[in-house]
Write a structure and sequence with these properties.
The protein is of the alpha+beta class and about 130 residues long. The protein is built from four helices and four strands, in the order E-E-E-H-E-H-H-H.
């Protein structure tokens, strides 16, 4: 089951493009060259700000957000599981495997990290 987050955003029109504010995310500001890019940047910023947590801020109700006359309020949705899969950092893990498998893997020029990643994805049904 995916973790879909939906947050209200405020688009502030600029001479060129938009400044984007996500009121529920501390430091939640970005910008975009046009409307589509601004919404994509908002989604990416939400993912970036929340990728290391599962304690997500509660989204405000759209109707409770007040904006200036020329501002646009809307919502942005992001699938956090999908975001993490597509923007994942790699980390070093120390693992223990039988010596004969290491020798055989080296003879076949295997990339042990790639093999472990593939095996974990298979085991986790990803």
């Amino acid at each position: 089951m995916s973790k879909i987050l939906v947050y209200p955003v405020i688009l502030h029109p600029e001479d060129t493009g938009y400044t984007v504010e996500v009121p529920d995310i501390t430091g939640g500001f970005t910008q975009g060259e046009d409307l589509t890019n601004a919404l994509e940047m908002a989604s990416d910023m939400i993912g970036l700000m929340l990728e290391d947590t599962t304690n997500y801020p509660k989204p405000s109700k759209l109707e409770s957000i007040h904006v200036a006359d020329n501002d646009i309020k809307t919502i942005v949705a992001i699938d956090m599981d999908d975001y993490r899969r597509n923007n994942s950092k790699t980390i070093r893990k120390t693992v223990t495997v039988p010596e004969y498998l290491v020798k055989m893997g080296k003879e076949k020029n295997l990339n042990f990290s790639a093999v472990l990643t593939k095996a974990l994805k298979t085991e986790l049904n990803l």
